[in-house]
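Long-time lurker. I teach an intro course on protein structure, and each term I like to show students one example going from raw sequence to a predicted 3D structure in token notation. This year I'd like something fresh instead of my usual example. Would anyone be willing to generate the tokens for the chain below so I can use it in lecture? Attribution to the forum is fine with me.
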Amino acid sequence: MKLFLIGTLLNFIVIFANGGKMPVSLSGPKWQENPIDITISDIDFKHMSLDENTRLPYLADVILIAKPYPFPKILSIGDVFLNLGLFFFLQEEMLKKK
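-- Reply from a regular --
Happy to contribute to a lecture. Here you go:
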């Protein structure tokens, strides 16, 4: 649950620092071979595009999960911690002896 808490706090910090919206990289990292293209119309009311005015951009949604993954996504480091925390929690609960 500690990893889950860390992920939640990291996401909260970047959202709070950017006026209540999560910054998203519209093209993914420049080093990625096949970045997914996201248009500004794909961004909803809780997200904003990452630009030079973004605070704490390294905590924003900048980690691109592209092909061969069938559902391309852009994640933040907070999302990674949330998912790891959830994974380890579920694994621990399933392996408990009754």
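Some talking points for your students: The beta strands are 22-24, 47-49, 63-65, 73-75. The longest strand covers residues 22-24.
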